[in-house]
Amino acid sequence: EAGVAQSPRYKIIEKRQSVAFWCNPISGHATLYWYQQILGQGPKLLIQFQNNGVVDDSQLPKDRFSAERLKGVDSTLKIQPAKLEDSAVYLCASSLDPGPNNEQFFGPGTRLTVL
Amino acid sequence: GQNIDQPTEMTATEGAIVQINCTYQTSGFNGLFWYQQHAGEAPTFLSYNVLDGLEEKGRFSSFLSRSKGYSYLLLKELQMKDSASYLCAGSYGQNFVFGPGTRLSVLP
Description:
- The complex is a heterodimer of chains A (115) and B (108).
- With 115 residues, chain A is mainly beta.
- Helix content of chain A is 0%, strand content 48%.
- Chain A contains no helices and 11 strands.
- In chain A, strand 7 and strand 8 form a beta hairpin.
- In chain B, strands 2, 4, 5, 9, 10 and 11 form a 6-stranded mixed β-sheet that branches.
- In chain B, a hairpin with a 4-residue loop joins strand 7 and strand 8.
- The chains are: A mainly beta (115), B mainly beta (108).
- Chains A and B meet through strand 5 and strand 10 of A and strand 4, strand 5, strand 9 and strand 10 of B.
């Protein structure tokens, strides 16, 4: 079974530039999550999708971050414009269902450096 | 919010036993996950506890006390490859909250 795919793996941009990350979840997984993990900290949930609908985006900085999951499969996360404090690893995860007992499977992450 | 607390760093010796503690807020709590994360890699699932008690899975065991808001991950017969961060995560409804992670260093 193929895992969660993410691209790019690394990205370096200057502040005020825009960047987009892509995620392809495990086939059949209805729930998709985007997390931000700053070095030395645990992952922080940015947004959770159930199919193509948003379940929770309460911690997404909506003035600069946006995400979509058209057709309920792949997802993109965009930052526009980027700030220095956005430097982090952006992890995508998926689970079969949104219920509280379901294990999340993580992708390798995209390491973003904002200069 | 649902604060998850765990020690920042721990050190142990190869072959030893180490216990990593995690405390969490009990309001709205469903269950407790433990993930392992090697440096530069994605987290991988270790265990999930929803009932009180100890669940053993090979060298790793996880314990939960719902009334105390407390969990621990027990690693036996430590190996060098166990050097990693261990993330405690609580599920609340459909939300997941991760702790800061405990960085475990296993020394020869």
